Protein backbone atom coordinates (compact mmCIF):
# COMPACT_ATOMS: atom_id res chain seq x y z
CA UNK A 1 0.00 0.00 0.00
CA UNK A 2 2.99 2.32 0.31
CA UNK A 3 2.91 3.73 -3.22
CA UNK A 4 -0.80 4.43 -3.01
CA UNK A 5 -0.30 6.33 0.27
CA UNK A 6 2.61 8.41 -1.04
CA UNK A 7 1.31 9.19 -4.51
CA UNK A 8 -2.47 9.43 -4.25
CA UNK A 9 -2.89 11.81 -7.15
CA UNK A 10 -1.05 9.49 -9.55
CA UNK A 11 -3.48 6.63 -9.05
CA UNK A 12 -5.60 5.95 -12.13
CA UNK A 13 -8.75 5.55 -10.02
CA UNK A 14 -8.21 9.04 -8.58
CA UNK A 15 -7.84 10.51 -12.06
CA UNK A 16 -11.03 8.75 -13.13
CA UNK A 17 -12.75 10.20 -10.06
CA UNK A 18 -11.64 13.71 -11.04
CA UNK A 19 -13.21 13.22 -14.45
CA UNK A 20 -16.41 11.92 -12.84
CA UNK A 21 -16.83 14.63 -10.21
CA UNK A 22 -19.94 15.94 -11.93
CA UNK A 23 -21.59 12.55 -11.41
CA UNK A 24 -21.11 12.62 -7.64
CA UNK A 25 -23.37 15.60 -7.01
CA UNK A 26 -26.18 14.24 -9.18
CA UNK A 27 -25.97 10.46 -8.80
CA UNK A 28 -23.88 9.95 -5.66
CA UNK A 29 -21.46 7.78 -7.61
CA UNK A 30 -18.18 8.34 -9.49
CA UNK A 31 -19.70 6.96 -12.68
CA UNK A 32 -17.22 4.19 -13.49
CA UNK A 33 -18.90 1.35 -11.59
CA UNK A 34 -16.49 1.24 -8.67
CA UNK A 35 -19.28 1.24 -6.09
CA UNK A 36 -20.94 -1.89 -7.49
CA UNK A 37 -17.49 -3.44 -7.91
CA UNK A 38 -16.85 -2.84 -4.22
CA UNK A 39 -19.98 -4.76 -3.31
CA UNK A 40 -18.82 -7.71 -5.42
CA UNK A 41 -15.34 -7.52 -3.92
CA UNK A 42 -16.60 -7.55 -0.34
CA UNK A 43 -18.83 -10.56 -0.94
CA UNK A 44 -16.01 -12.42 -2.70
CA UNK A 45 -13.12 -11.52 -0.40
CA UNK A 46 -14.39 -10.76 3.11
CA UNK A 47 -15.38 -13.39 5.64
CA UNK A 48 -19.16 -13.42 5.97
CA UNK A 49 -20.35 -12.18 9.35
CA UNK A 50 -16.92 -10.77 10.27
CA UNK A 51 -17.41 -7.02 10.71
CA UNK A 52 -13.70 -6.31 11.20
CA UNK A 53 -12.77 -8.20 8.05
CA UNK A 54 -15.42 -6.44 5.97
CA UNK A 55 -14.09 -3.04 7.07
CA UNK A 56 -10.52 -4.12 6.32
CA UNK A 57 -11.57 -5.46 2.92
CA UNK A 58 -13.16 -2.14 1.97
CA UNK A 59 -9.97 -0.34 2.99
CA UNK A 60 -7.92 -2.77 0.90
CA UNK A 61 -10.17 -2.15 -2.10
CA UNK A 62 -9.75 1.62 -1.68
CA UNK A 63 -5.96 1.37 -1.52
CA UNK A 64 -5.36 -1.32 -4.11
CA UNK A 65 -8.32 -1.25 -6.52
CA UNK A 66 -10.30 2.01 -6.70
CA UNK A 67 -10.21 5.09 -4.50
CA UNK A 68 -13.38 5.55 -2.44
CA UNK A 69 -14.93 8.72 -1.03
CA UNK A 70 -15.77 7.39 2.42
CA UNK A 71 -14.22 8.48 5.73
CA UNK A 72 -11.40 5.98 5.35
CA UNK A 73 -9.28 4.08 7.82
CA UNK A 74 -7.37 6.88 9.54
CA UNK A 75 -10.16 9.44 9.90
CA UNK A 76 -12.41 6.52 10.73
CA UNK A 77 -10.46 6.08 13.96
CA UNK A 78 -11.58 9.57 15.00
CA UNK A 79 -15.19 8.63 14.26
CA UNK A 80 -14.79 5.41 16.23
CA UNK A 81 -13.44 7.24 19.27
CA UNK A 82 -16.20 9.85 19.21
CA UNK A 83 -18.88 7.17 18.98
CA UNK A 84 -17.39 5.19 21.85
CA UNK A 85 -17.27 8.26 24.06
CA UNK A 86 -20.92 8.99 23.33
CA UNK A 87 -22.02 5.38 24.02
CA UNK A 88 -25.08 5.98 21.82
CA UNK A 89 -28.39 4.19 21.43
CA UNK A 90 -29.52 6.12 18.33
CA UNK A 91 -27.14 7.20 15.56
CA UNK A 92 -27.81 9.06 12.32
CA UNK A 93 -25.38 9.21 9.41
CA UNK A 94 -25.92 11.55 6.47
CA UNK A 95 -24.23 10.17 3.37
CA UNK A 96 -24.23 6.38 3.23
CA UNK A 97 -22.18 5.98 0.03
CA UNK A 98 -21.20 2.27 0.15
CA UNK A 99 -21.94 1.71 3.82
CA UNK A 100 -18.44 2.03 5.27
CA UNK A 101 -19.12 4.76 7.83
CA UNK A 102 -22.12 2.88 9.17
CA UNK A 103 -19.99 -0.25 9.54
CA UNK A 104 -17.50 1.64 11.70
CA UNK A 105 -20.33 3.11 13.76
CA UNK A 106 -21.88 -0.34 14.20
CA UNK A 107 -18.58 -1.67 15.50
CA UNK A 108 -17.89 1.29 17.81
CA UNK A 109 -21.46 1.41 19.16
CA UNK A 110 -22.69 -2.19 19.36
CA UNK A 111 -25.81 -1.25 21.35
CA UNK A 112 -26.96 1.44 18.90
CA UNK A 113 -29.54 1.49 16.17
CA UNK A 114 -27.94 3.20 13.19
CA UNK A 115 -29.80 4.99 10.41
CA UNK A 116 -28.06 6.28 7.32
CA UNK A 117 -29.62 8.72 4.85
CA UNK A 118 -28.50 8.39 1.24
CA UNK A 119 -29.45 10.32 -1.88
CA UNK A 120 -28.84 7.48 -4.36
CA UNK A 121 -30.79 4.24 -4.39
CA UNK A 122 -27.87 2.57 -6.20
CA UNK A 123 -25.57 3.37 -3.30
CA UNK A 124 -28.19 2.18 -0.83
CA UNK A 125 -28.32 -1.18 -2.60
CA UNK A 126 -24.53 -1.58 -2.36
CA UNK A 127 -24.54 -0.58 1.30
CA UNK A 128 -27.32 -2.99 2.22
CA UNK A 129 -25.46 -5.81 0.49
CA UNK A 130 -22.28 -4.95 2.38
CA UNK A 131 -24.09 -4.68 5.73
CA UNK A 132 -25.78 -8.03 5.20
CA UNK A 133 -22.43 -9.66 4.46
CA UNK A 134 -20.96 -8.10 7.60
CA UNK A 135 -23.86 -9.37 9.71
CA UNK A 136 -25.16 -5.98 10.86
CA UNK A 137 -28.24 -5.57 8.67
CA UNK A 138 -30.47 -6.12 11.70
CA UNK A 139 -29.32 -2.86 13.31
CA UNK A 140 -28.27 -0.65 10.39
CA UNK A 141 -30.94 0.87 8.12
CA UNK A 142 -30.57 2.97 4.98
CA UNK A 143 -33.22 5.62 4.31
CA UNK A 144 -33.18 6.95 0.74
CA UNK A 145 -33.73 10.70 0.69
CA UNK A 146 -32.20 13.99 1.79
CA UNK A 147 -32.71 16.14 4.86
CA UNK A 148 -33.30 19.16 2.62
CA UNK A 149 -36.34 17.71 0.84
CA UNK A 150 -38.90 19.87 2.58
CA UNK A 151 -39.24 17.66 5.64
CA UNK A 152 -40.22 14.37 4.00
CA UNK A 153 -37.13 12.45 5.14
CA UNK A 154 -37.18 14.01 8.61
CA UNK A 155 -40.87 13.11 8.92
CA UNK A 156 -40.11 9.54 7.85
CA UNK A 157 -37.33 9.23 10.40
CA UNK A 158 -39.71 10.46 13.09
CA UNK A 159 -42.75 8.42 12.09
CA UNK A 160 -41.06 5.17 11.08
CA UNK A 161 -37.82 5.01 13.04
CA UNK A 162 -38.39 6.65 16.40
CA UNK A 163 -36.55 9.94 15.99
CA UNK A 164 -37.83 12.73 18.17
CA UNK A 165 -36.90 15.39 20.73
CA UNK A 166 -33.76 14.47 22.66
CA UNK A 167 -33.42 11.05 21.04
CA UNK A 168 -30.37 11.47 18.79
CA UNK A 169 -27.05 10.61 20.42
CA UNK A 170 -24.59 10.75 17.49
CA UNK A 171 -24.86 12.54 14.15
CA UNK A 172 -22.23 11.86 11.47
CA UNK A 173 -22.08 14.31 8.55
CA UNK A 174 -20.40 12.91 5.44
CA UNK A 175 -22.62 13.99 2.54
CA UNK A 176 -23.01 17.23 0.56
CA UNK A 177 -20.65 19.63 2.31
CA UNK A 178 -22.84 22.62 1.44
CA UNK A 179 -25.70 20.96 3.33
CA UNK A 180 -23.86 20.29 6.60
CA UNK A 181 -25.04 23.45 8.32
CA UNK A 182 -28.59 23.58 6.99
CA UNK A 183 -29.18 19.90 7.80
CA UNK A 184 -27.82 20.30 11.33
CA UNK A 185 -30.02 23.34 11.87
CA UNK A 186 -33.05 21.36 10.69
CA UNK A 187 -32.40 18.80 13.42
CA UNK A 188 -31.83 21.47 16.01
CA UNK A 189 -35.17 23.01 15.01
CA UNK A 190 -36.82 19.68 15.76
CA UNK A 191 -34.99 19.35 19.07
CA UNK A 192 -33.50 15.96 18.23
CA UNK A 193 -30.16 16.58 19.97
CA UNK A 194 -29.75 16.53 23.74
CA UNK A 195 -26.95 17.87 25.93
CA UNK A 196 -24.07 15.48 25.34
CA UNK A 197 -25.07 14.53 21.79
CA UNK A 198 -22.04 14.39 19.50
CA UNK A 199 -21.84 15.67 15.93
CA UNK A 200 -18.90 14.48 13.79
CA UNK A 201 -18.25 16.17 10.44
CA UNK A 202 -15.83 14.79 7.86
CA UNK A 203 -14.09 16.71 5.02
CA UNK A 204 -14.41 20.10 6.69
CA UNK A 205 -11.19 21.25 5.01
CA UNK A 206 -11.20 19.08 1.86
CA UNK A 207 -13.33 19.62 -0.13
CA UNK A 208 -14.44 21.91 2.67
CA UNK A 209 -17.49 23.03 4.64
CA UNK A 210 -16.61 26.66 5.48
CA UNK A 211 -20.07 27.76 6.59
CA UNK A 212 -20.34 24.81 8.95
CA UNK A 213 -16.89 25.45 10.39
CA UNK A 214 -17.65 29.15 10.87
CA UNK A 215 -20.90 28.27 12.67
CA UNK A 216 -19.15 25.89 15.05
CA UNK A 217 -16.52 28.52 15.82
CA UNK A 218 -19.26 31.07 16.50
CA UNK A 219 -21.08 28.63 18.79
CA UNK A 220 -17.97 27.49 20.68
CA UNK A 221 -18.80 27.34 24.37
CA UNK A 222 -22.37 28.44 23.69
CA UNK A 223 -24.33 25.75 21.85
CA UNK A 224 -21.42 23.41 21.06
CA UNK A 225 -17.98 22.50 22.34
CA UNK A 226 -15.92 21.63 19.26
CA UNK A 227 -12.56 19.97 18.74
CA UNK A 228 -10.94 20.33 15.31
CA UNK A 229 -8.96 17.20 14.51
CA UNK A 230 -6.16 17.90 12.04
CA UNK A 231 -5.77 14.92 9.75
CA UNK A 232 -5.52 14.09 6.06
CA UNK A 233 -7.98 13.14 3.37
CA UNK A 234 -8.97 9.52 3.01
CA UNK A 235 -6.61 6.84 1.69
CA UNK A 236 -3.49 9.00 1.32
CA UNK A 237 -1.24 11.17 3.45
CA UNK A 238 -0.46 14.24 1.34
CA UNK A 239 -3.70 16.24 1.35
CA UNK A 240 -4.69 17.82 4.70
CA UNK A 241 -8.22 17.65 6.04
CA UNK A 242 -10.20 18.41 9.18
CA UNK A 243 -12.68 16.33 11.14
CA UNK A 244 -14.80 18.34 13.59
CA UNK A 245 -16.15 16.68 16.71
CA UNK A 246 -18.78 18.84 18.41
CA UNK A 247 -20.53 18.10 21.70
CA UNK A 248 -23.96 19.69 22.01
CA UNK A 249 -24.26 21.77 25.17
CA UNK A 250 -27.95 22.55 24.87
CA UNK A 251 -29.73 25.86 24.88
CA UNK A 252 -28.13 28.18 27.40
CA UNK A 253 -30.43 29.98 29.85
Automatic annotation (TrEMBL):
Q: Which residues form the signal peptide?
A: none
Alphabetically sorted, this entry's keywords are: Methyltransferase, S-adenosyl-L-methionine, Transferase
Q: Which PANTHER family does the record cross-reference, listed alphabetically?
A: CATECHOL O-METHYLTRANSFERASE 1-RELATED
What biological process terms from GO does the record include? methylation
Pfam families registered for this protein in UniProt: Methyltransf_3
Write down what this protein is called. SAM-dependent methyltransferase
What is an example of a GO molecular function annotated in this UniProt entry?
O-methyltransferase activity
Output the PROSITE patterns linked to this UniProt entry. Answer: SAM_OMT_I
Amino acid sequence: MGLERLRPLLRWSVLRMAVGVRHITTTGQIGDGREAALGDYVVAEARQGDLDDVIATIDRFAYQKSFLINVGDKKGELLDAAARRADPRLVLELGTYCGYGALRLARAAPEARIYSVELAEANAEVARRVWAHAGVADRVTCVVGTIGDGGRTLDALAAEHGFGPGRLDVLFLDHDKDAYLSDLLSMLDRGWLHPGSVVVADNVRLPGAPKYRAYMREQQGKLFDTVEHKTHAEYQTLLPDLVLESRYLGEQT
